[in-house]
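Let's practice the habit of predicting before peeking. Look at the sequence and jot down your guess about where helices and strands might fall. Then scroll down.
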Amino acid sequence: MRIIAGKYRSRQLKSLKGLALRPTSDRLRETLFNVLSPSIQGARFLDIFAGTGAIGIEALSRGAAEVVFLENHLPAAKLIRQNLDSLGIRFGFEVLAGDAARNLEKLAERAKNEASTFDIAFLDPPYAAAAEYERVLTYLGVSPLLKKSSLVIAEHSRKLDLLERIGALRRFRVLRQGDAALSFFTLN
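Done guessing? Here is the structure:
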């Protein structure tokens, strides 16, 4: 697995052995960032269920100002830190280990005090955890973490058809590639 473009282009990232993670393919990551390219420079980016950190690190490589990585699998959270360290990335990020919903609540509490919102939120829970999509998307829609212009993107199995509306979020685009799909949402 490698960084596709930007400052860390072609640099390799490590993954966990076995089936603990299902990293976003290089091809799908490239498609995602081709769509996001006008919005990524200087953006605050939220990577939920971050896995190896490849999506958030790609965002940093392409000029995101800050990335917050949320990962509930502790070995994966440690791996994200190792991948950031191996690239020499020392600032502009935060890694929060533990339950995604609890960490989103922590971020929301901070956002009330700092008026911090994210320009882009990306989520990629395990495909088998289909309930996580609705739970996280619903929470994002009512939390202070997003602003009207924020984009929310969910990577999911091509076989899973997410609803057009989930809470305060409305899906406006779906890109399918191989066995995966990307659903793009904005606030209503």
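How did you do? The CA atoms of residues 8 and 87 lie 7 Å apart.
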